[in-house]
């Protein structure tokens, strides 16, 4: 894509470069390629790891998709964690495409950090960058991504990561996100106990040995079958837990 002239890109408007299911690089104008399932696309960039680097790349195992998704920093990992927890998001992928456009007679390009698909079919593009790290080049890239998303009906969101309390709570619950933490009989008993709002530890102890019931309870909180305040209160024994209204 860097070999394209600015004139050609200008005529085409926004342009996408991505990998198809066979791993072959594809190029398409945004107006043509916007409906690719980017939430399942392979990354167009690698996640290098080397001695002395200041960021911490890695892989997040997603309970939503059952697959690993790459990240380039702990902040990106936390954003992945939030998307994995969000019951409205059904799939997501990292570095799904290059967006290319012309500006000031030059070809510019940017790969967003994530593309997600919501339950209603809406596309969501996510870039992760704290406010104090948004320099002019990044600001231009985010503005272009916002315009491109508006053209095709995607949502665009730039985030500096979750707030500290939510981050802390989700990091704890994420340890119980795997299906292996679910036990049907205990889960049904917990759902019954928490039909009335009850303190977390008290409800767990009503069902049985807390060493057995707490992992199931945390899994139900992760999956949304039980709820509590995760944004403003640190999760603890006195946290009030309830089962959502089945209606």
UniProtKB/TrEMBL annotation:
InterPro entries cross-referenced by the UniProt entry: TnsA-like (IPR048000), TnsA_N (IPR014833)
Record Pfam families: Tn7_TnsA-like_N
Domain TnsA endonuclease N-terminal: 86-157
UniProt superkingdom: Bacteria
Protein name per UniProt: TnsA endonuclease N-terminal domain-containing protein
């Amino acid at each position: 894509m860097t070999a394209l002239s600015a004139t050609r890109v200008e005529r085409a408007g926004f342009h996408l470069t991505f990998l198809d299911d066979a791993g072959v690089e594809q190029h398409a104008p945004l107006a043509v390629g916007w409906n690719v399932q980017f939430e399942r696309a392979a990354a167009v960039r690698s996640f290098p790891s080397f001695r002395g680097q200041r960021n911490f790349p890695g892989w997040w195992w997603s309970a939503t998709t059952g697959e690993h998704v790459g990240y380039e920093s702990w902040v990106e990992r936390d954003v992945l964690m939030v998307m994995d927890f969000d019951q409205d998001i059904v799939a997501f992928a990292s570095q799904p495409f290059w967006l290319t456009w012309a500006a000031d007679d030059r070809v510019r390009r940017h790969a967003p950090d994530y593309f997600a698909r919501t339950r209603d079919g809406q596309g969501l593009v996510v870039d992760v960058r704290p406010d104090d790290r948004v320099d002019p080049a990044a600001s231009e890239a985010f503005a272009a991504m916002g315009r491109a998303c508006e053209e095709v009906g995607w949502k665009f969101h730039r985030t500096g990561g979750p707030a500290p309390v939510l981050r802390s709570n989700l990091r704890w619950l994420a340890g119980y996100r795997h299906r292996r933490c679910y036990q049907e009989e205990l889960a049904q008993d917990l759902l019954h106990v928490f039909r009335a709002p009850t303190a977390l530890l008290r409800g767990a102890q009503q069902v049985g040995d807390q060493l057995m019931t707490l992992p199931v309870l945390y899994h139900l909180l992760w999956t949304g079958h039980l709820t509590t305040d995760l944004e403003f209160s640190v999760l603890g024994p006195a946290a009030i837990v309830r089962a959502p209204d089945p209606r």
